Structures are given as C-alpha cells and as structure tokens.
C-alpha cells in the first residue's frame, strides 16, 4: 500500500476538482497536506473533508503566483513535517481564442498562474527536497500541453511551458533523487471544464478520450488523483521527467 506518512505535501488549487481529489487521497495515504487555493472557503472545506476522514491538513489561502503566498506555503509545510512533495495543480483556463484574438490579459493570467507560479514554488521547495535527499514534484499539465487542439493559444502555450519546466527540473536534479513529473489529463469533470464545456463542443474539440466517448462521460478527478499519489510516493522511485497522458487514450490518436 502507498504510504506518504513521513511527509508534508503542498497541493495548489486543492479547493476543488482534481486538486481536492489529490489532497484527499494523499492525506488518506498519511501525508500532512498544505491545502492551497485562491478561495479561502473551498480550501477550508477540503481541510474539513480530510480531517473528517482522520487525516491531517492545513489551509493556506491566497494567490499562488504571489511571492508572499509561496513563502507562507513553504513555511506551513516545513512546520507540519518534512516537506517532500509539491503538486502544482492550480490553473486557469483561457477562452479558446487563437493567437489573433487572445488579449494581453488572458495571456498574462495563463502564464502567471499556470507557469510562473509552478516555477516559483519549485524554486522555493527545492532546497528542502535537496536537503532531505528525496522528493517529488507533480505538475498538472493537460492534453493542451501535448497538442494544439484542446484549448486556446494562451492555455496551450502555458501547458507546453510547464512540460519544459518539468523536464528541465527532472534532469537537473535527478542525481539528487528529486523527481519531477507531469500528468496530462484529458477532459475531467471539474469547474474548469464545466464552465467551458459548451464552448469546447462548439469548437468541435475532443474533450473525451475514445474510452470515454463510448461511455459518454468525462474522467472523474479520482481517476487523475490515483496517478498523482503514485508519483508522489517512493513507489515511483524510477519515474522522473515523465510526461504522462491520463486521458483515456485521446492523445494516442
Ligand atoms: P481543475 O480541477 O480541472 O484544475 P478547478 O477549476 O476545479 O479545475 O480547480 C482549479 C483550482 O485552482 C480552483 O480551486 C481555483 O480556485 C484554483 N486557483 C486558480 N487560480 C489560482 C491562483 N492564482 N492561486 C491559487 N489557486 C488558484
């Protein structure tokens, strides 16, 4: 059985969807979770869900692209236990616009939340992982990080950049036993996709993998969190720099 009982783990965007599912599952495996979200109420709810299941968690609300919040997250994690894990999951979607129609504001927001914040958090946690001699960073990518047909220019560019951060960090710190991987989900039933599902359909974009098209459903967050918890655990000791589709076969087409 997977155990994470010796560590604290920062999970961003853990107030809903995929992040909340990872937080609950990692807490069930014994980790102390630092629940990060922009939304104080949903962060608190995730902590309550974890505590009701006898797990350990602390909420830290705030914008994860702010240096002060990054410092708060690391401080909370190191006081809760050895900081050995980070899940860069907080993300914002674009409006499916191509480059010609993408505004500066949309571009800047996608880059700041989806790329700059993961970079800042990676930089902030690395000294702790290096000192511990092990650690795992999981970056939440997207099928839009693998190909050009799943979102607009800003989101697609940001998720491709996250792949670069994943590979660079994995390669640079492999000898120090720090592992860095990315999960590339297809359509998952969360707020981020519910809002824009009709737009996706209008654009004729595939949000469901072939397996799910036959089942007429999107993936559940728990189908992503199982992989994330594996990657966080020592059971994944030989997996680093991997960009792993978790999309029921969509990207295989
Ligand atoms: P998904 O689970 O598919 O990523 P959600 O919209 O359910 O989609 O979850 C994304 C989470 O990321 C939300 O809870 C949202 O509040 C959070 N989030 C978005 N931007 C930020 C930010 N700048 N800082 C912290 N959390 C953020």
From TrEMBL:
Record has Oxidoreductase as a keyword: yes
Keyword Transmembrane helix: no
PROSITE patterns: ADH_SHORT
Top enzyme category: oxidoreductase
InterPro entries hit by this protein: NAD(P)-bd_dom_sf, Sc_DH/Rdtase_CS, SDR, SDR_fam
Pfam family, one: adh_short
A GO MF label: 3-hydroxybutyrate dehydrogenase activity
Catalytic activity, EC: 1.1.1.30
Domain of life: Bacteria
GO annotation terms (biological process): monocarboxylic acid metabolic process
Keywords: Oxidoreductase
Family: Belongs to the short-chain dehydrogenases/reductases (SDR) family.
Protein's name according to its UniProt entry: Oxidoreductase, short chain dehydrogenase/reductase family protein
Organism name: Brevibacterium mcbrellneri ATCC 49030
């Amino acid at each position: 059985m997977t155990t994470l009982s010796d560590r604290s783990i920062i999970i961003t965007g853990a107030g809903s969807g995929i992040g909340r599912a990872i937080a609950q599952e990692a807490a069930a495996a014994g980790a102390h979770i630092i629940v990060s979200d922009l939304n104080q109420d949903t962060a608190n709810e995730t902590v309550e869900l974890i505590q009701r299941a006898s797990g350990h968690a602390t909420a830290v609300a705030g914008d994860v692209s702010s240096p002060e919040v990054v410092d708060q997250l690391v401080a909370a994690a190191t006081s809760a236990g050895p900081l050995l894990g980070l899940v860069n999951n907080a993300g914002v979607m674009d409006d499916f616009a191509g480059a010609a129609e993408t505004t500066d504001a949309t571009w800047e927001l996608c880059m700041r939340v989806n790329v700059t914040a993961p970079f800042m958090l990676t930089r902030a946690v690395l000294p702790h992982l290096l000192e511990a001699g092990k650690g795992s960073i999981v970056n939440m990518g997207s099928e839009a990080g693998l190909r050009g047909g799943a979102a607009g220019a800003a989101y697609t560019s940001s998720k491709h950049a996250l792949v670069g951060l994943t590979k660079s960090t994995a390669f640079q710190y492999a000898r120090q036993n720090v592992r860095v991987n990315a999960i590339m989900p297809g359509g998952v039933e969360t707020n981020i996709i519910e809002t824009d599902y009709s737009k996706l359909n209008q654009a004729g974009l595939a949000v469901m993998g072939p397996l799910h098209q036959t089942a007429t459903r999107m993936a559940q967050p728990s189908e992503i969190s199982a992989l994330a918890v594996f990657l966080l655990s020592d059971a994944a000791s030989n997996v680093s720099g991997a960009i792993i589709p978790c999309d029921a076969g969509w990207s295989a087409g």
